[in-house]
Amino acid sequence: MLTVLAYSMVVVFMFLIMTKRLPALVALILVPVLFGVIGGFAPELGPMMLAGIKQLAPTGVMLMFAILYFGIMIDAGLFDPVVKLILKLVKGDPLKIVVGTAALTMIVSLDGDGATTYMITVSAMLPLYQRLGMSRLVMACVIMLAGGVFNILPWGGPTARAASALGVDVGHIFVPMIPAMIVGVCWVLFVAYVLGRKERKRLGVVDLLPLKSKAAKAAKVAKEEQDAAPVPQKAYAGFEQPRQANAAMGGYTPSNGDMQFGHSDGARFVARRSGGDRKVIHMNCPPEVENCDDIKVGDPKTARPKLIWVNFLLTLGLMVMLVLAVLPLPVLFMIAFAVAIMINYPNMEEQKERIAAHAGNVLPVVSLIFAAGIFVGILQGTKMVDAIAASVIYAIPEWMGPHLAIVTGLLSIPFTFFISNDAFYFGIVPILAKAAAVYGITGAEIGRASIIGQPVHLLSPLVASTYLLVGMAKIEFGDHQRYTLLWAISASLVMLVAALVCGVIPFMGVAS
């Protein structure tokens, strides 16, 4: 009965958010409460939910102050040089932008913290995606895939949990998995290439054209006269084009056979047919800037260019202390935020303005974390998570015993999605390891197999940092899951095959 109730709760929850019947915040609260009442746990639900909220409270605090900290860094202009560098490297090519997103995520992921990775990467890349009209789902997909592969780093969490649960050295799990991890990295870059080609085919290659001073001034005057009216988004193909507005922008005046697009910030896009399927789009900068290199991530009014090295050293120090675990993450980000806002905005009114400016980013993420605490609290308090684990273990037929290493790798994909990492690594993996020992499969080998599912794990509604990613990318959680799930599963399977080929996960054990 409890097993059926547990599976039903998870299925109903996923159905409601993926079909957009309910927002994730509401579903995380109401669905577990409803199933808890149906299961007869009504009198105990209060303490269960409170326990779950307490369990996730440090994560909520960490995310709140991490968002505020990196928000201050964005306002101060710390990431402007990164955006300019990427602009020069990718040169308006959607394919290069998507591959660059994956590469940047991998570099930042070396700190082992998903929330930090998402905040830095999205802050740097989102302006490019928005300016070129690229899909934010593609951005979130690539960031999550890269983060999932790097989530097996020893300081990332899952590998350390597996080592602790199995009583083996963390190096015995991670080091042999490095070749499989490299293969996973190559696969993510390949996926980024495929998705980037699709975006390039859809949008074309964008030329970022600088505006001449006179044209910029003329455009600014024209814009003021038009009361900043938005440019109508309309495509033309084979028809006479309206020329005056674009001429005032100092850009290319389209002729028959070209396509013209408007942009809400005053930029003009002109797609010129250039033979074959390849399109080259010439994009003029907004009239506020005279060169596309002047594009900023934050508001120029809040930028602190003279403090960029101070902010860089502060952020670098934060990352080092994060990796070395000098203090708990929530405490580190609280202290870093307080120092950052004091240095960059010493005036109290400015501090209040900056906090208020980022409150809208903080509230949706933190509220989802505490709502997830109710889901986790009821799932664990009612022992539904144990029922799910037991049902799967009992369902493994005897003939699969010698292949338990592969089975563990495959089970890690759905298990780390439906239940928390703690529940999987401390509740299920030790049981699988005991059963596998009969066939000569070591605990370290089971530990390696158990971290295979991490690319899929990051799509779980139980992962707090995922809400941060979708919130910053301004996409729906269910849309992100639908778009990314198959790619995430493919990444896990590729890593599993690579581990089998390298021999770090045995294909078959031998009964002792």
From TrEMBL:
InterPro entries assigned to the protein according to its UniProt record, in alphabetical order: Cit_transptr-like_dom, Citrate_transporter
Domain of life: Bacteria
Pfam families for this protein: CitMHS
Transmembrane segments: 22-43, 55-74, 94-112, 133-153, 173-195, 310-343, 355-379, 399-418, 424-444, 456-473, 485-511
Keyword Membrane: yes
Topological type in the membrane: Multi-pass membrane protein
Primary subcellular site in the record, as a coarse category: membrane
Gene: citN
Protein location: Membrane
Domain Citrate transporter-like: 14-453
UniProt protein name: Citrate transporter
Any Gene Ontology CC annotation: membrane
Keywords, sorted A to Z: Membrane, Transmembrane, Transmembrane helix, Transport
Entry GO MF terms: citrate transmembrane transporter activity
